[in-house]
Amino acid sequence: MGRRKIANQKKGALAGLSVPQSAGLLSFRVIDSVGEPLVQARYTLNDSQGRKVVAGETDPYGWGVVVVPVGEYRMSVSAEGFAAHLGHASVREGGAPVALGDLTLHVAPTLPLPEPGEWEIEAAHTRIGFTARHIGLGRVYGGFGNFAGAIRVGSTMEHTAMHVVIDAASIDTNVKMRDNHLRSGDFLDVENFPTLEFYSDRFVHRGGQNWVITGGLTLHGVTRTVTLDAQYNGVRVGMEGETRAAIHATTELHREDYDINWQTMLARNIAVVGSNIKVDLDIQVVPKGTELEFK
Prior knowledge:
Elements: E1 3-5, E2 18-20, E3 23-31, E4 42-46, E5 52-57, E6 63-69, E7 71-78, E8 85-91, E9 98-104, E10 117-121, E11 127-134, E12 138-144, E13 147-153, E14 161-167, E15 171-172, H1 176-183, E16 195-205, E17 210-219, E18 222-237, E19 243-254, E20 273-287
Parallel strand pairs: 3-9
Antiparallel strand pairs: 1-2, 3-6, 4-5, 4-7, 7-8, 10-13, 10-20, 11-12, 11-20, 12-15, 13-14, 14-16, 16-17, 17-18, 18-19, 19-20
């Protein structure tokens, strides 16, 4: 494609920058409510069909500058602890840069926290899942079907503690032969290490509904400190009148950290099971002793 100047070379900071004839340049700055730039704010532009065209993060001055095809776009901008900005942008033919100016993000409102007291995981609406690489090509998805846990909510979240116990033998990847192998001494060794356990160390508020939960995870007889990136989803009343609170959390584990080093190598030294394990948790808790008919 031919290329053309988008600005007179004698004028402006973008002088001399050229783009494809079928594209245009879009610029914007992301700031907070007092005018300070938001660094590494995340932005995404989707086309009129909902397809993601470009995504990225703002620079150290809060700026985002992208070159995209001519068209109409839906734009979302977000930053940790702030409510997302949703808007539209139009990139027209003719080469003139489109300057959206300052996009202001406001601090996200904080949801009420659970009442102090003893809470327990409601297993029917909780999922403990994981994803691992398979022979360097695809992914294996799995989870654990049997677990229990309790959260003691203190007068402040700094005085809150969580303990979760997972039955290692309840691992399920939807392939019986693979699950049996994962239970064996090559991997989880459930005969000698029947449970995985997590004890929280602290809860740290990162703004809005975002929290960090750190603690010790014992797996395969080895304890390591892990960090959960958590999003608190608030407190609601369930179908039976019970009180529920929910969080979504993610983390990443490395199996070598837990002395799980078995690898079956294929041609060109490709490991059957990847080293990094992504963990995804959807957790709902109810006050301890809550009686539920539908579980």
